[in-house]
Amino acid sequence: MEKRINSTVYQQGRPASSTKRGSSIRSGARWIYRRLPDLIIYSYAFLYMYTGWAKFNNMTAFIRGNGKIPHLGPYAKLIGYGIPSLEIVLAILLIVPVYQIKRFALWTSTSLMAIFTIYLSLMVQFVEKKLCHCGGVIESMGWKTHIVFNIIWLIAGIYALKRTKL
């Protein structure tokens, strides 16, 4: 049985607001849901800044590793400088407070994550000696874990793109 008195809902003799915990959890969940695209965008910025910086700090090994990849070896130096530079530029663009720039950077970041995911999947499927020079902690993941990690990021990026339409 429910009564309304001064816009407060009472159930069985006590105000519904006495269950503050449930109310604050729902309020927190709504806040996260509304802010989730922004959280994803800033997380992408952190991820790309982290991996780009880690690759620059270990540039020699990154270029050497890329040189061993079939069909990509001749472009190892270009890839070695290009990928971390792109990641750092994207990280910066993702935090620029201009909607069109941020959205472009999110599209590019999500596309790059799709390319990385396809690359990893092909490496696992077709290359005997698997090479990963993603940088930092990410490099220490197992191959299947790394693919799942990338797929989660890819899904998150697509979700953020869908939620931030014009």
Automatic annotation (TrEMBL):
GO biological process, one term: methylamine metabolic process
Keywords per UniProt: Membrane, Transmembrane, Transmembrane helix
Naturally occurring in which organism (per UniProt): Sphingobacterium siyangense
Taxon lineage: Bacteria, Pseudomonadati, Bacteroidota, Sphingobacteriia, Sphingobacteriales
Membrane topology note: Multi-pass membrane protein
GO cellular component, one term: membrane
Compartments it resides in: Membrane
Name listed for the protein in its UniProt record: Methylamine utilisation protein MauE domain-containing protein
Keyword Transmembrane: yes
